[in-house]
Amino acid sequence: MRTSQPTTIYLSEYQVPAFLVDHVDLRFELFEDGARVHSVLDIRRNTEAGRDQAALELDGDSLTLERLQLDGRTLGEDEYDNQGERLVIARVPDQFQLTVVTWIEPQNNTRLEGLYKSSGMFCTQCEAEGFRCITYYPDRPDVMARFRTRVEADKHHYPVLLSNGNDVERGDLADGRHFVTWEDPFPKPCYLFALVAGDLTEKRDHYTTQSGRGIDLRMYVEPRNADKCDHAMDSLKRAMRWDEEVYGREYDLDIFMIVAVDDFNMGAMENKGLNIFNSSCVLASPDTATDVAFERIESIVAHEYFHNWSGNRVTCRDWFQLSLKEGFTVFRDSEFSSDMGSATVKRIEDATLLRTAQFAEDAGPMAHPVRPASYMEISNFYTLTIYEKGSEVVRMIRTLLGPELFRKGSDLYFERHDGQAVTTDDFVQAMEDASGRDLGQFRLWYEQAGTPELTVRDDYDAGRQVYSLTIEQRIPDTPGQRNKKPQHIPFGIGLLDSNGKDLSLRLSAGDHSHLTERVLELTGELQTFEFHGLAERPVPSLLRGFSAPVRVFYPWTRDQLMFLMSHDSDGFNRWDAGQRLAVDVISSLVGAPAEAEVEPRLLTAYRHLVSDTELDQALVAKMLQLPSEAYLIELTAEADVQAIHAARNRVLQEVADTLRDELVACYHRNHQSGDYTYNSSAIARRALANTALAWLLHINDEEGRELALRQFKDASHMTDQAGALRALVNSDFEADRDRVLADFFRQWREDPQVVEQWFSVQTASPRCGDLERVRALLEHEAFDWKNPNKVRAVIGAFAGQNLARFHAPDGSGYRFLAQQICRLDDSNPQIAARLVSPLTRWRKFAPQYRDGMKAALETVRDKAGLSRDVYEVVHKSLAEPA
Ligand code: BES
Ligand code: ZN
Question: How far apart (Å, rounded) are the C-alpha atoms in residues 277 and 303?
Fold first, then answer.
């Protein structure tokens, strides 16, 4: 266990490594009671560091040191200092070979960092700092070495032995054991190291690259999952093709392997040539996985594959640069998903996540820039800011440069830095050098935290036929950062005439352009743009395509929003207008008497949507989703969760009551019997049918109930079965709900991924997921404290999605969460730290919630032996704001 007090690490203290490792020779002896790791390192002093007397410092965590030799000579205990997390050898030559033998206990590793066991197999997770739990090593990404790995284990129990690269040798050993040796020709940081040993089924496929090289594709899964590999394999091939076509990037090894493991802290990991996945992010068949899961798998498989270039070939110099690989790779996977399905819908999903959760993070106590300046525990910095805002920052660069220059920039970046560990600044520099554009001010997006707020005012001068927009930007203070400088913001815009047609955007009297869409570049605190030759006052369509991760304030009228909702040529803004209208209506009902009228124009708008068969049905399905409670809370200064929940429900109820017949018709129009097909139009139809069902059940409609029960019984795939289950669980038909829940569990009890859905459909439901049920589920035979997916499905879904129950006025939800965090902190600090997040924004809530949330944080703070992970989040949350 980690013993030292949490300390803060600063970017400003970065030093180039004093030693480099050229080659690593590893030998793993795997046993049931532990593993012995033999490591032979070829080390040399880094002349660039200019520290020719520096001691050799190696990281280590939870290791038993069995042997330490320098150039074959065993070191005496006075020749090195082994201080818990660091092994220091004061006097070493300029070049030498170091042999380290450690003993570790994977079978007792519940943190799931380093080498551990999951359902009987050995596997690893080394990012960010897990390799130090395997052996003593300079565990930092700017030390890149070539690895050769020999894995030895019992042949019967562990027939499959994997590591990075190509298998170069295999053979049998005494006592029924065997070995396989792997060699990875590409130098890599140790966080990309991976090892797997188990009794796994192999699924093979083949891919031919653009240049004609043949690649072996292999998936390794537990035998019972053999029929759940096809979708991931197909997704992988699509991703490989896409990266060739869009970025000109080919795969570089002869083998690409994917392994599925049940116990995994994250979604998946891009280890060189050997990606390891959380089972829930890779295994799917139509009868066990929903459309949402299929889409998620496609994007995660692509994401990890894309890292082979954006992360592995070019990696991060230090962990402050994490967004260099994660932001860029999220941008790449999100463009991939847009190209595979509906681009508008993908944009809506990304913007929703950003505005709901990243904006909240950026406004809370954990706010940090895309390139943070300090951290205590790096695991806490795999955040929405690093990932999603980081991806938006890359997107803005592309918007500013245009697609051709952006591609030129990415080519230059990959060419210039291939095989290197670099910084976000190197990325921006390559973009600047390839395009000739000055991104000096743009770099502030990496340095300043906080979501920029744009206040837009407009004016129409009928005499001059000029419409003007004045935009003021302001970036709020965040912990440790005040008085920020204005940023360089690409601001997409269109103007509509009274018939809803796009107008030409002429920026001066002499401009005869026919462009109807432009990207304005905001750089100052206050800027005015004029649009000439306009015979009437237009309706502005602002921040088209969500061109920047900012908040926009403009005094839209409800009529304007209705108008944009049905006319805007920008699909994203059409959706956004609907959201803004719904937000406006719901907000005006917060705290209002129960009989207050629901804006009839909203009902009219939804009536059109439910019956609209012309518009992209995937977009219609999105437009029919009311803004989430989390988003409404995010928009409210002192959020009263119960009042927001009630107001939103009131609107849901009114819409469903009013449109009841249309919803039934919409259901029948879209519900399909027959086999599952995975394409955007089928997915959109299923989403529409299931949305209609959910609304009907929300009002406890009798016909809806029958439709749901029939769909549940007849479903030929999980999207429909789970859709019916969810609708029933969220109704007041308690007897039906309990029956389908029991049937569902009986049918799927052997399938962990489906059982996870079964847990979360209950815990996330405000009608069914009360604390009593959540507590009961923690005692359920299928629950497992050691399995992060189960913890997320029960505790995470309750605290993160079931807001009305979690924020129970008596504080019971908060106390419950604090208790579970303390319990988990002893076994898995990373998972515990992530569960703190629903409490961190306590200051944002109305007083009746705030106090209970704060008290819960204090309980966690006072727990003895708190991990560094939880310590950082709790202490930052309780600290006085900047
Ligand atoms: N490199 C990460 C996995 C990771 C995250 C390792 C945190 C260690 C700590 C991987 O590429 C990743 O980003 N995975 C995401 C899914 C992805 C689609 C955004 C994840 O695991 O959630
Ligand atoms: Zn990633």
Answer: 12
Query: What does pTM read for this prediction?
Result: 0.98
Going by pLDDT thresholds of 50, 70 and 90, the confidence category of residue 4 is: low
How would you class 156 by CB atoms within 10 Å of its CB: exposed for 0-12, middle for 13-18, buried for 19 or more? exposed
For residue 155, give the amino acid letter: K
Give the Cβ contact number of residue 64 at 10 Å: 12
Task: Give the span between the Cα atoms of 379 and 376, in whole angstroms.
Answer: 9
Residue 428, helix vs strand vs coil: helix
**Spatial separation of the C-alpha atoms in residues 81 and 92, rounded to whole Å:** 13
User: Alpha-carbon distance 401 to 404, whole Å?
Assistant: 8
User: How far is 27 from 123, CA to CA, in rounded Å?
Assistant: 15
Token readout for 480 is: 């440790």
| Candidate list 152, 304, 634, 654, residue with the active-site label | 304
What are the beta bridge partners of residue 608?
A: none
Report the 3 state secondary structure along 809-840: CCCHHHHHHHHHHHHHHHHCHHHHHHHCHHHH
3-class secondary structure, 852: helix
Q: Which two tokens stand for residue 610?
A: 């439910």
Q: Is 313 in the pocket of ligand 1 (CB under 6 A)?
A: no
Distance CA 46, CA 18 (A): 5
CA distance 651 to 602: 9
**Alpha-carbon torsion (818, 820, 825, 831), positive or negative:** negative
Candidate of 188, 261, 269, 298 to mutate for ligand 1, largest count of ligand atoms within 8 Å of Cβ: 269
310-359 pLDDT tens trace: 999 999 999 999 999 999 999 999 999 999 999 999 999 999 999 999 99
DSSP annotation of 283 reads -
Q: Do the Cβ atoms of 379 and 833 come closer than 8 Å?
A: yes
CA–CA separation, 88 and 618 (whole Å) = 59
Q: Which ligand is nearest to the CA of 300?
A: 1
**Which region, left, alpha or beta, applies to residue 158 given φ > 0 means left and ψ of -120 to 50 means alpha?**
beta
Q: Which amino acid is at 731?
A: S
Band of pLDDT at residue 3, cut at 50, 70 and 90:
very low
3-state helix, strand, coil in the chain (%, to 5): 45, 20, 35
What is the rounded average pLDDT of the residues 400-413?
A: 99
785 and 822 in contact (C-beta within 8 Å)? no
Nearest CA to 663 out of 674, 655, 651, 673 is that of 655
For the chain, how many helices (H) and strands (E)?
31, 31
- For residue 524 the two structure tokens come to 């100052």
Question: Is residue 384 in contact with ligand 1, taking CB distance under 6 Å?
Answer: no
Give the closest residue to 190 by CA, choosing from 97, 291, 58.
Answer: 58
Q: What pLDDT, on a 0 to 100 scale, did the predictor assign at position 1?
A: 45
User: What average pLDDT does the segment 416-444 reach?
Assistant: 99
Question: pLDDT tier at 592 (50, 70, 90 boundaries)?
Answer: very high
Ligand 2 centroid vs 597 CA: distance in angstroms? Answer: 47
Measuring CA to CA, which residue among 319, 299, 333, 328 is closest to residue 414?
Answer: 328
Bridge partner list, 20 = 44
Q: Provide the CA 840 distance to its chain's centre, in angstroms.
A: 19
781: Cβ–Cβ under 8 A, 6 or more apart, which residues? Answer: none
- The answer to whether 652 and 766 are in contact (CB under 8 A) is no
Contact between 182 and 166 (Cβ < 8 Å): yes
Q: Could you tell me if the CB of 191 is within 6 A of ligand 1?
A: no
Find the helix or strand (DSSP H, E) in which 854 lies.
helix 847-861
66 given a catalytic annotation:
no
Q: Is 411 helix (H, G, I), strand (E, B) or coil?
A: helix
The CB of 300 under 6 Å from ligand 1? The reply is yes
Q: What is the CA radius of gyration of the chain?
A: 28
